[in-house]
Amino acid sequence: MKEGDNMAVTEKIKALLSIKGKKNVELAAYLGISPQSLQNKFNRGSFSAEDLIKVSDFLECTLAFEIDEDHLR
């Protein structure tokens, strides 16, 4: 994946929070972490697979992996 091709995971989470009308503090509570720890995850882009599964549950959305066809050759 080339830089800029897709929205970063953190930006997708922030956008989904906005679309769903949820707040960062609510997500932090759902994840069992402080709002500051959530902010650190956003800043570093350091969401674990377990975090992402919980985020998708919280936001009632699907977590998906996609393969760029150019990388299959």
Concise account of the structure shown:
The protein has 73 residues and is mostly helical. The protein has 4 helices and no strands.
Note the main attributes of this structure.
73 residues; 0% strand; disordered N terminus
Written overview of the protein:
The protein is built from four helices and no strands. 55% of the residues lie in helices and 0% in strands. Residues 1-5 have low confidence and may be disordered. With 73 residues, it is an all-alpha fold. The longest helix has 12 residues, at 9-20.
Topology diagram in text:
Layout: H1 9-20, H2 24-31, H3 35-44, H4 49-58
Helix pairs in contact: 2-3
Alpha-carbon distance between the two ends:
14 Å
Sheet with most strands: none
Calculate Rg over CA atoms.
13 Å
Strand content: under 5%
Mean pLDDT: 88
Poorly predicted runs of 5 or more residues: 1-5
The helical percent reads: 40-55%
Shape: globular
Number of helices, counting only DSSP H or I runs of 4 residues or more: 4
